Amino acid sequence: MPAHVRRVRPGDTVALVACSGPVDADSLDAGVEVLESWGLRVRLGGSVRAQHPRLGYLAGTDVERARDFEQAWLDPEVAAVISARGGYGSQRMLDLVDWEAVRRAPETAFVGSSDVTAVHAAVAAHVGTPTVLAPMPAMAYFDAVAAEHLRSALFEPQTPRRLPSPRAETMRGGRARGPLVGGNLSVLAASVGGPEFRPARGAVVVLEDVDEEPHRIDRMLTQLLRAGWFEGVVGLALGSWTDCGTDCAVVRDVLWDRLEPLGVPMVWRMNVGHHPGALALPLGVPVELDADTGTLTVVPDLGCPAEVVEST
Asked: 17, 29, 83, 273: which could join 116 in a potential S-S bond, CB 3.0 to 4.6 Å?
């Protein structure tokens, strides 16, 4: 796997696609304006302004969404494929993508989060290139701070970056190094048994979710634990849990109860997830997690084996 995400430069063309749900027109226009302010040329996939003829929670049909993604990736003029928003539907299109053709195509950056976690996993499994877990341009929480995090991740991917989370809290101290994997918890749990399912052995895991009750978070973590997904992880970076129940202390208790037995450095309330100003994180790229300071450092040239440096 390459050491960093493909670099994007002013003047490059990026393609906005809809992997999941329908896209709000005003939010889309605002997101396009931000990308163009960086000197990028923005190309819209046909499904970005579409809606499924019967299922209103999908942007276009599965075939349309898969075709847009595939055509954007295979276009040699496109430097990055960016999902406009999440919602639901990414998993439905995965089996309709010609992954062999995508694998043979020139390296392309990919951006998305939330439901689009399924596409990150598919790119990792079938293509083997890093991707960017980040707020998407047509989402309400894509504010100026989140936009700048994404710009840095795309324009300076080979530069080591320290990514602090001021509100982060240490659950188990220590430091860990390894490639970063993960994303949205509910999508990862739903991937168990699918062709893209890969255990996170040797990795630093990032997890977040939104609108999930604590007992559902418990169930999804338990499913991943029983499926062996957490075996051999070296660190846990737990992000935001927006609107997950009425008491965040209960969510923290669930995370501690299910994940503390792994015995690795663990921090929660990292600046990752469904909220304004969220970080942009390169999946598949080496990072160092400092659970004592709540900091992730992107180190593309780390070149060392995954390890728990220390755990307290």
From this structure: 83
CB atoms < 10 A from the CB of 199, how many? 15
- 154-199 residue pLDDT tens: 999 999 999 989 999 999 999 999 999 999 999 999 999 999 999 9
Alpha-carbon distance of 277 to 288, in angstroms, equals 21
Q: Which residues lie closer than 8 Å to 223 by C-beta, 6 or more apart?
A: 189, 192
Instruction: In whole angstroms, give the CA distance from residue 237 to residue 179.
Output: 12
> For residues 88 and 211, what is the distance between their CA atoms, to the nearest angstrom?
14
Mean of per-residue pLDDT scores for the chain: 95
What is the CB-side half-sphere exposure of residue 229 using CA atoms within 13 A? Answer: 27
**296 has which bridge partners?**
163, 289
Residue 275: active-site member: no
- Active site includes 208? yes
Residues 6+ apart with CB under 8 A from 65: 17, 18, 19, 20, 47, 58, 59, 89, 92, 93
Cβ(48)–Cβ(41) below 8 Å: no
266: which strand partners?
A: 172, 236
**Exactly one of 4, 52, 120, 274 is catalytic; which is it?**
274
Annotated active-site residue in 20, 47, 113, 114: 114
Alpha carbon distances (Å) from 304 to 156, 220, 230, 285, 312:
21, 31, 21, 12, 22
Cite the beta strand spans of 63-203 per DSSP E: 78-83, 109-112, 131-133, 161-164, 169-172, 174-184
User: Which residue, among 204, 148, 154, 123, has the nearest Cα to 4 in the 3D structure?
Assistant: 154
pTM above 0.85, yes or no: yes
CB burial of residue 180 (10 Å; 0-12, 13-18, 19+)? buried
Q: 10 Å Cβ neighbour count for 295?
A: 19
Residue of 64, 70, 208, 288 marked catalytic:
208
CB atoms within 10 A of CB 230: 21
**Packing angle between helix 248-259 and helix 214-226, nearest 10 degrees?**
10
Cα–Cα distance for residue pair 233/15, rounded to 1 Å: 34
